[in-house]
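In this section we walk through a basic example: taking a raw amino acid sequence and producing a predicted 3D structure, encoded as discrete structure tokens. The instruction is simple. Fold the sequence below.
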Amino acid sequence: MRQLSRLLRSNVKFRHLQLIVSISERLHIGRVAEHLSLSQPAVSKSLAEIESIVGSQLFERTPSGLIETREGKVFAEYAREALAQLGRLGDDLEAAQLGHAGTIVVGSVVAVSASPDHSFSKLRQNTIRMVKGHGIEGDAHAGRYVRHRYLAKKQPFLPNLRQVHLMPIELFEEVRKVLRAQKNCGVSVVKIILFKVRQL
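The resulting token sequence is shown next.
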């Protein structure tokens, strides 16, 4: 495993990442070649080169096109993240050069939560780091593509439009009122809470 990590670090190039993402999105050598302005033999050769480095087949070849293997899906996901990080690096460097880099505070936040796991509730944090186009650093729902388990199974490359959940403080005030009005925290309270959250 360590040997594979060393091979990837020393041999995988930027063009390899671009190629794998393009293949993952099109699953057809001809369309990938057209998109990247390469010849089909060049695409096939580069793919074979990457598979040789990884030591696994990333895409099955069929008469109608390509089928992504499990290893291919893993590689493509990391390739997307790496390319997205490079894109953010370019944006941040440009902002720094223009003197636009810095922190802007708008409004106030009462509490922040994050968790690396998919769980019903998330632990309260003293601080969080929000990354543009990515979400909360270290959180299970952060990423360029959808992280909600249900949607990720159906459409794994759907843009992640809900990287951060914001809940107005008024919601918690309403929940407190309901809890005070109920002698027992029963199903009715849970239904009201869930209904209010879905309305956001």
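Looking at the output, two observations stand out. The mean pLDDT is 78. Helices lie at 2-11, 14-26, 29-36, 40-54, 70-97, 149-154, 169-181, 187-199. In the next section we compare this with other chains.
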